[in-house]
Design brief:
heterodimer, A: 297 residues, mainly alpha, MetI-like fold, 13 helices, 72% helix, B: 421 residues, alpha/beta, D-Maltodextrin-Binding Protein, domain 2, 2 domains, five-stranded mixed beta sheet, three-stranded mixed beta sheet, 12% strand
């Protein structure tokens, strides 16, 4: 007796004419952006992978030798590379939590449309338009010229144990307005009938937040957390502005330093690939977890 | 006959047109540099304008990047992409890959450099593997700049021994005056605080290869007692910490110093121009930091502005000619930047302080970086400076790092760079 596979698996997947037309249109819309992305990101990245298996020094070097996995093994043993990952993780954790908590809090206060709310939202979003380098520069003065005279404490950007938190604060200040806007969009899409029904059932504000608002805005969480996770793990500019502090050195800065400054392109490229793998892996895990919690409307 | 004449005439016209075109065809020279100070940038423009006045078809494009963060990365990117700069600031020892890959011209037989009869140290700073690859323009040194007004008000004399320096610091503290304003927000400052002790001691001990051995892993920091001595001397200067010591950049520190916020500042001569720009009435003096009570201190000398010519760039002959002009006719540069020229050529427009520095160098009682067999390369410089900044922070904020721990950290950082090489 033979076991028959389920009927559905027997069928070859076929696309209806309508689906084909639909997908074809989607692909055509996506194509220009994808080609640009492939040209400036994907292809250079793929081209650079072989470099990580060589002892190439300066990026302009004309000759190099194949060294197999040596660069990866060296980095796995390197204390400074491990430290840079730790600093990146610290920065990312504080940044994601801070920007999301503040962004959500602000969104809850400002989600209703009105003249005052619109002005405040614009003001809160404005730091997002400032470059990362300029933000750090401005905050270095805020720390030294405002906070130090007020508190009598030195700037956190000059203290090893505080510098990552000092940088994370700058990143939170800059990006919480962005998170706020995403949350506002999500909040505005929650049908008001749900709240009315809940109130009829005797729900209070906390119940509404916990059982209606939060579940309904999980897609916004997914978007914000995924984006900030990616930005945080790739943190470069903030860290580069306090390059003399070894406790502020992130993995992206380590990679940059080795590829360019130290003229060890092979080692640096191996670090870049390891960082990319971690980034892809973590982003996928977080996205998968959050997507499972999303509520269909 | 007519045909021959017509052909000859056409040829003559063609040749004259080509000659005119080549004589007057515009040439743009790109200068890649890391001169952060506004006065130096103005000096660069001044020397370029002087050259353009004599060669109207030559113009310049100056590209600046911060040496500590972007300079070499941006230079590497430019070279890789084929966007070749003509003139590259820096010395070949710091950027050895430029030599290996043929991006710098061999100047060993350059007649102009030879004619200047520069001492071994000056040429050593622009050499690699026994060959000259750069034009050395001027030199820098570092030490303590002091506010003459505060010194006069407090009745203080310039110290000549370590004991006198320590006593002077204490007098200032007792008078409620900050002895120093520091700028450890810039990594170079920990480095120069160490050099005053390390260089003269190493050269006196005949350890001209100390940096080379440390980079190869053939020696350790603890093998040379003067690294611990340098840290001890530096620690003694880290008295009366200020809240801005670790966060001040060079510019922020200069701002405070020029405004009279502290009596002294350990700095390099590259800051003189900007110091006086911030406060033209500022009465500032300079002294070489005593390293003991026996007068062993020597003024450190390192070639500051050094430039290499890229033979792979177009018009490298024009770039070479410009550098030959600068090294011989560099007064315009010196007057604007207040940097003392290696040739000894001086001007009435130079500050007395700058002239004094040139005289001390001329006396030969100096410790010259060019007398070491190899300078720290970029990776080791970063490791060295980062660890020294961490030591400064620990000392100034009561972190309690000992000198032995600092040496241990330096060794670990160097071992790591060696392992990743």
């Amino acid at each position: 007796m033979t076991i028959q596979p389920p009927a559905r698996l027997d069928r070859k997947p076929t696309l209806s004419r309508y689906a084909l037309r639909e997908h074809g249109a989607n692909i055509l819309f996506m194509l220009p952006a994808f080609l640009l992305f492939a040209y400036v990101v994907l292809i250079p990245f793929l081209q650079s992978i072989p470099v990580s298996f060589t002892d190439k020094k300066a990026i302009f070097a004309s000759s190099w030798n194949f060294v197999g996995m040596d660069n990866y093994l060296k980095l796995l043993k390197s204390a400074s590379f491990q430290d840079s990952f730790m600093h990146t993780a610290q920065f990312t954790a504080v940044y994601i939590v801070g920007a999301n908590v503040l962004g959500l809090s602000l969104a809850l206060m400002l989600w209703k449309t009105g003249r005052f709310n619109n002005i405040v939202r614009t003001l809160l979003f404005m730091p997002f338009t400032v470059s990362l380098v300029a933000s750090t520069k401005v905050w270095s003065y805020v720390y030294t010229d405002i906070l130090t005279p007020l508190t009598g404490s030195p700037s956190p950007l000059g203290i090893s144990s505080q510098v990552i938190y000092g940088l994370a604060l700058i990143a939170i200040w800059r990006d919480m307005g962005y998170c706020m806007l995403i949350y506002i969009a999500a909040l505005q899409s929650v049908p008001l009938e749900y709240y009315e029904a809940a109130r009829v059932e005797g729900a209070n504000a906390w119940h509404e937040l916990r059982h209606i608002t939060v579940p309904m805005i999980v897609p916004a969480f997914t978007a914000n957390v995924t984006l900030l996770l990616s930005w945080g793990l790739r943190c470069f500019d903030y860290s580069q502005m306090v390059i003399n502090m070894k406790t502020a050195k992130t993995t992206a800065v380590f990679v940059y330093e080795y590829i360019f400054g130290n003229a060890r392109a092979g080692v640096g490229q191996a670090g870049a690939i390891m960082l990319t793998l971690v980034l892809v892996l973590l982003t996928n895990i977080v996205t998968t977890i959050l997507r499972k919690r999303e509520v269909e409307m | 006959m007519k045909k021959i004449l017509a052909t000859l005439l056409a040829l003559t016209l063609l040749i004259s047109m080509v000659t005119i075109a080549s004589a007057e065809s515009p040439v743009n020279i790109t200068v890649f540099h890391y001169m952060a100070q506004a006065t130096k940038q103005a000096g660069l423009v001044a020397i370029e304008e002087a050259y353009t006045a004599a060669h109207p078809n030559v113009t310049f494009t100056n590209i600046y990047y911060n040496q500590g963060t972007d300079y070499f990365p941006q230079l590497s990117t430019a070279l890789s992409s084929g966007d070749q700069p003509n003139i590259i600031m820096g010395n070949p020892g710091l950027y050895p890959d430029l030599v290996t890959e043929g991006f710098v011209m061999d100047l060993t037989d350059n007649a102009v450099i030879k004619s200047l009869n520069l001492p071994h140290g000056d040429l050593g700073d622009v050499s690699a593997g026994g060959k000259i690859y750069g034009f050395p323009i001027d030199f820098k040194t570092w030490g303590i700049f002091y506010n003459k007004t505060i010194f006069a008000e407090q009745g203080l004399e310039v110290p000549t021994t370590l004991t006198e320096l320590n006593a002077l610091q204490q007098k200032l503290i007792d008078a409620g005056i900050d002895p120093y304003v520091r700028s450890f927000g810039d990594a170079v400052y920990g480095d120069i605080e160490m050099r005053n002790t390390v260089w003269p001691r190493a050269l006196a001990a005949g350890n001209n290869d100390v940096f080379q051995k440390l980079m190869k892993g053939e020696a350790k920091f603890t093998d040379y007692p003067y690294f611990a001595e340098a840290l001890t001397n530096w620690t003694a200067r880290m008295v009366a910490p200020r809240t801005d010591d670790m966060s001040n950049t060079q510019d922020m520190g200069l701002e405070v110093f020029a405004a009279g916020g502290a009596a002294m500042r350990y700095d390099g001569t590259w800051s003189i121009g900007d110091m006086l720009k911030k406060n033209p009435a500022f009465e500032v003096g300079f002294f070489v930091v005593p390293i003991d009570d026996n007068g062993s201190a020597k003024m450190n000398v390192q070639v500051d502005q050094a430039f290499m010519v890229n033979p792979q760039a177009e018009n490298s002959d024009v770039a070479l000619n410009f550098m030959e002009y600068w090294i011989t006719e560099g007064v315009a540069w010196s007057e604007m930047s207040q940097m003392p020229l290696l040739t000894g050529v001086t001007s009435d427009k130079l500050l007395p302080l700058v002239k004094t520095l040139a005289e001390i160098k001329g006396s030969g009682n100096i410790a010259h970086y060019g007398d070491f067999t190899k300078p720290f390369s970029s990776a080791f410089t970063t490791a060295w400076r980062t660890e020294l900044t961490a030591y400064a922070e620990s000392t100034l904020t009561g972190g309690g790092m000992t000198i032995d721990q600092c040496l241990e950290n330096l060794q670990k950082a160097f071992d790591e760079v060696i392992a990743l090489n």
